C-alpha cells in the first residue's frame, strides 16, 4: 500500500468569544465559527496479486472508495480476463452468503451476509453499466450466463437481474442483425447510383460532415480497454488477429481518409498544375471544416496526407496554392506539432477550443479568429457537437505506460491509476460524440469506399 496523510475537516465549532457568550454553533453565521481539522492516514493500493485486488473490491465498497472500483473495472483486462475476475467474485465470495454453516444463525452473520450481498451487487451493477462490452462473448456469452444464473439464484427479480437479462438479449439481437457501422456502409455501397460522382461535386463542409459522421460512429463503438498497452501491443502476433477490432476499424478509417486525399490529387495524370493545386486547396478547406467540427481524426489524416512525400514533392503545385490556403495549412499543421510531446494538440483536445500561437503571421491569427467566431456562433445557436480525437495519441500514451511500468509477480496498481486517467478521457470524448446530429449520405459513402489505393509506383 501507499500511505499518505490528508488534512480533513471534522467539525465547525463556535469561536471562543461565542462560547463565552453562551451561544451555540448552529446559532451563528459561518463567519463566527471556527473550523477544526485533523490529519488522517489514507491508504491506497500500490500492488497486489489478482486475488488480493479482487478482494479489495469488496473492502473498497465498504470504505466508499469508489475510485478504486472504477480504476479496477476500467483496467483489469490488461492483466486478467472477465472469466477470472467473475469467478473470483462469485465462486469465492458469492457462495459464502448461501453456505450453511453453524454460524449462519447468529445476528452478526446475517448482517455480514447482507453487507456482502450489497457490496457484490453494487460492484456487478457498476461492471454492467460501465464495461458492458466485457460480457460480449458470442455466441454462448458464458460469463453473462454465469452472472445471470447467480443473480437468479441469489437476487431473483432484482433490477440487477433484469439489467443482465436485457444486456444478454441486446447482444444476441445485435449478433443476429450483424450490426456495426461497417455493415451499414457495406450495405450502402451496394446501392448503385446512376451517375458516378466526382470529388469536385462535393462541397467542402459536406465532405467534412460525412467524414465526421463516419469517424464519430466508429469512435462511439470503440471498446476503451482495447487501447490498453498490454492489449494493443500484442496485436502483431499471428494468433491475435482478432484482438482490438474496434481500434483496427478506427485505424482503417484513418488510413482510408489519407489514401483518399492522395488519390484525388495524384490519380489523374492529365491534371494541370493549377488544377492539382485547386484540389490541394479544397482538402485544406475540408481540413479546416473538420477543425470546426472538432474532428481531429480526419483533420490529422488530411494533414498527414498533404505532408506525405508523394504530395510534398509537388513543388510547382504548392507554389500555385493560394497564400491564404497555405497559411491555413500551416496553422492546421502546427496543431499536430511534435514539440513537447504534442502539447498543443493535447491541450486543444482537452479544452475543445482553438489554440493560440503568438509567433504566427497576422493572417493566420485572422483564420483563428474566424474559426473562433464559427464555434461561438454554433454555441450561441444551441448547436451541440462532440469531439472526435486522434486515437494515436492515446494509444502511444498507454503503450509507453505499459512499457515503462512492467508488471512482475504482482500487478502494479499505481500504473493502473495512470491508465485509468487516459481511459476516462476516452470515455468522456465518446460520450460527447452523441451530440453530433448528422446522417450519412449514400452518394458520398459509395464514392469514398470505392476509392482505390494507389501503389508505391503510382505515387
UniProtKB/TrEMBL annotation:
It comes from Anolis carolinensis (Green anole). This is Ral guanine nucleotide dissociation stimulator like 1. GO terms for molecular function: guanyl-nucleotide exchange factor activity. It comes from the Eukaryota. PANTHER family: GUANINE NUCLEOTIDE EXCHANGE FACTOR (PTHR23113), RAL GUANINE NUCLEOTIDE DISSOCIATION STIMULATOR-LIKE 1 (PTHR23113:SF199). Residues 41-172 form the N-terminal Ras-GEF domain. Keywords: Guanine-nucleotide releasing factor. Residues 203-459 form the Ras-GEF domain. GO terms for cellular component: plasma membrane. PROSITE patterns: RASGEF_CAT, RASGEF_NTER. GO terms for biological process: Ras protein signal transduction.
